[in-house]
TrEMBL record:
Belongs to the IspF family. The lineage of its organism: Bacteria, Bacillati, Bacillota, Bacilli, Bacillales. Binds 1 divalent metal cation per subunit. The record marks H35, T135 as: Transition state stabilizer. 4-CDP-2-C-methyl-D-erythritol 2-phosphate binds at residues 9-11, 35-36, 57-59, 62-66, 101-107, 134-137, 141, 144. PANTHER family: 2-C-METHYL-D-ERYTHRITOL 2,4-CYCLODIPHOSPHATE SYNTHASE, CHLOROPLASTIC. It catalyses: 4-CDP-2-C-methyl-D-erythritol 2-phosphate = 2-C-methyl-D-erythritol 2,4-cyclic diphosphate + CMP. GO terms for molecular function: 2-C-methyl-D-erythritol 2,4-cyclodiphosphate synthase activity. Its cofactor is a divalent metal cation. This is 2-C-methyl-D-erythritol 2,4-cyclodiphosphate synthase. A divalent metal cation binds at D9, H11, H43.
Length: 159
């Protein structure tokens, strides 16, 4: 049995916030705004995992009205989502993802993101996790550096 899921998330860029993407704190003049640490990539991957199993989305599991998730570490939330996947008897096939950002440059940080995500999802090998990045050629809200978006697709396989 295999299950497929997709996730998409957006967070606004704001001054005075950390820029944490894929579990990596990236030096940048602005950071991502959210109830949690606003890790847009981990949110997209969490949503893809939940979607694959018909379990809704992270807002349903970790509401932004709940003070317990104020400044939450999204890696902890991803690991909680992964526990739900494991409980249902699935393991990771693969995850592919894209960060949509004009700046900062993601490429130097992608290997570390892959390691972190592969660890959280208990991947057998790093090639099961792919992280890409693209600008939008200065077009739209990402191009104007007002926000960063991420999307993810996952394949889960019955263990
Ligand atoms: N924030 C970003 C955006 C892109 N990259 C890398 O640059 C390459 C070229 O991006 P284009 O949008 O001009 O096609 C792309 O392949 C990414 O690897 C990046 O590191 N950070
Ligand atoms: C992650 C949560 C946690 O409260 O808050 P935000 O950081 O605002 O992120 P969002 O992508 O809007 O998802 C909803 C919430 O579950």
């Amino acid at each position: 049995m295999i299950r497929v899921g997709q996730g998409f998330d957006v967070h606004q860029l704001a001054e005075g916030r950390k820029c944490i993407i894929g579990g990596v704190e990236i030096p940048f003049e602005k950071g991502l705004l959210g109830h949690s640490d606003a890790d847009v990539l981990l949110h997209a991957i969490s949503d893809a995992l939940l979607g694959a199993l018909g379990l809704g989305d992270i807002g349903k599991h970790f509401p932004d009205t709940d003070a317990a998730y104020k400044d939450a570490d999204s890696l902890v939330l991803l690991k909680r989502v992964w526990a739900l996947v494991k409980e249902r008897g699935y393991k990771l096939g693969n995850v592919d993802s894209t960060i949509i950002a004009q700046r900062p440059k993601m490429a130097p940080y992608i290997p570390q993101m892959v390691e972190i995500i592969a660890g959280a999802l208990e991947a057998d090998e790093l090639s099961q996790v792919n992280v890409k990045a693209t600008t939008t050629e200065k077009l739209g809200f990402t191009g104007r550096e007002e926000g960063i978006a991420a999307q993810a697709a996952v394949l889960l396989v019955k263990a």
